[in-house]
Amino acid sequence: MNLQAIFSVSECVEALNISLSSLGRLTIEGELSELKTSQGKWLFGTIKDQSSSLGFFAPLWNIGNAKSLEIGMKVQLVGRANVYARSGSLRLVAESITPAGIGALQAAFERLKRVLTEEGLFDERRKRPLPRFPRTIGLLTASGSEAYNDFIKITAERWGGVEILFLPISVQGQSATQSVVSGLSVLQRYNPDVIVLTRGGGSLEDLAAFNSEEVTRAVYASVIPIVCAIGHEGDVSLAEMAADKRASTPSNAAQLVVPDKATIIAELNGHISHLMRLTSQQLDSANHRANTLLLRLERSASAQEARFNQLFQRLLQRFNGTINRVDELNLSLTTSTARASMAMSHALNSKTLIFQSLERMLPQFDTNIPIKRGYALLKDQQGRVVSSIADLSLDQIITTNIQDGTLESSITKIEGL
Amino acid sequence: MTAKKQSIESMLAELEAIVATLEKTDTPLEQSISMFESGLKLASSIKSELATMTNRIEQIKADLSTPKVS
Prior knowledge:
The complex is a heterodimer of chains A (417) and B (70). Chain A is α/β, with parallel strands linked by helices and 417 residues long.
């Protein structure tokens, strides 16, 4: 007896699928030989090795790195096998397709980078400036990580008064991509001034989420300026390239996001000294102006004084002139007086001398003395002394004085000697 | 001094404005001196503010595991 059940086609496909599902999740390594998308929703392709090939299918949203895949690439496909009822063909329903083998991940990275660059996700022109003094910072990183500690520490060292909205995310492994994308979306609602997405260094595999198309696009789409610091200096992830600013490390992100107190204080000191300079310049110039005016005032005053002095001098000169003249006059007066008095005294003296000599001489002229000796004195009728015959004429009456009397006589004869 | 507390940013902006005004040569001297004084006051307020302020950290609770369409 044939006890074997007879299946309908559908029942057969269903039975096959039940059987295939018992294989569970398979990881298959092979080379991508066909790859295409359909309606922007589905990804179709073929994975093969030297002798076999398997078709695969996946919703595009499950394969975040679809753009980094290319034909000929060696990949590891994780998925489940099933039979597609309509065509009866066996295919793999892929959950992830990741590049495999040496250089494969790097090649995938380079390919996605090229595609996104062409699309303009890394365009420098769309990068926004970061706020100079952020009040709220959205921080996306793993809880308790070194990246978290470094960022918080350096931020506190540099600046204060900031509210840090910390949203812990998974930064590595299967869930990382989704965690970062969701975290970015959640933070947008809190509307911080700036978002920092960071994690420490790691291998290219560790950093895979930050090289994924989803995270790169989510960073690109952030309406809030975003700083990415993924890994150590040197590794540049696609997420960082899409960010407004790339920081080399979590500490560097803190340096970029908040100002430094020391810098601000230096700036303040600069302002203060500039203020001082400006004010003292203004004071100096006011002083200078005042001094110049004062000098001018003094000059004009001294000019007036000079003028006054000049006038005074002239006046003095005139006055002196007058005084001189008075003096001269005085002098000449004195001289004249002196001369006069001298002349007078001279005159007087000489008169006195004359008088004295006369006085001395006087007895000689005393007529009485000769008369007493017997001489006679002849006088004419007018009383004049007759001393020459020339004064006499015949018959003239003359008076003769002798010692004891007077006699009158008439001239009878005149005879010269 | 009990006036509404200004942010460091606005105080710095004010200080910068004072410097810019003083840089203009036509500012009257009296005004310059009073501006200079308020500039110094601002600077010392900023300094003391800088010395005391601290950061506040708030952890956001959010479920980041969005269900996947399968």
